[in-house]
Amino acid sequence: MLIIRDLVKVYPGPVSALQGINLEIPKGMFGLLGPNGAGKTTLMRILAGQLEATSGHVTLDGEDILSDPQRVRAQLGYLPQDFGFYPNLTGHAMLTYLLELKGVDAPQGRKRLASELLERVHLAKAAKRKVKGYSGGMLQRLGIAQAIAGEPRLIIVDEPTAGLDPEERLNFYRILAELAEDRRVLLSTHIVEDVSVLCPQFAVIRQGRLVARTTPREARAALEGRIYEGNVELNSLEELATAHRVTQAVLVEGKHRVRIYLAEPEAPDGFQPSTPTLEDAYLLMMQSEGESQADPQEPEPAGEGVPA
Hints:
By secondary structure, this protein is an alpha/beta fold. The protein is built from ten helices and 14 strands. A hairpin with a 2-residue loop joins strand 9 and strand 10.
């Protein structure tokens, strides 16, 4: 079990990026969902031993991660949000170099291990291609290959599907789902679909605080009979939003197609019941905080790529 207790991180300024996070993460896939600047990357970097917490405790199967991150690091795999590669190296050479940096070896040598890892993430056919010719999805798979080297007990992936096209995203989903069958995978994302597809359980973080911990099914079920959908004229959306909680508004044929949450079943004219989605639940959780999306912001991570 990964146990996080009263975790706080304050950056100079001061900026409170994490404000007392308490979370227990079991084996399998677990999602951490929140907007940009919520504190997700700060939390991931602390767990990966790349950033020192201001206060709090984190244990992995009873071992203290914060007091001795070097000792536990060999049991962790980490794919940061921004991962640097040397573009003129082949995929195989790049991965072999990363294995050397991580201190991961194998009885038959690092080159053989690199080949096995590339096969595992479906990059064997591209092993001799230069990294600069890889697509975004291929780069993410190369990043996952280094993260799973050494068979870590915990794999941390931070915004892994951002910028991927639909086909690449599906390929990456399959790889992550396979990895989560026999280990703990912590997925940090601002994309609701990532959680809906992959995560039996997830937590929502906003402005350094946990808003909720639930499952996709429970989150949708809590809104059953409360979500309505209808068309609204362009100049009427603001008025509707003052009277009801809007979860989505999309332009369709010159009108807003709007989804709203109703505490009482008295819908505006033209609105009909609709099946709740996880996105409805997530956006309502964000609104329930009652604060601006923009303040405060989590500082940008620095220096997470390959050393020069």
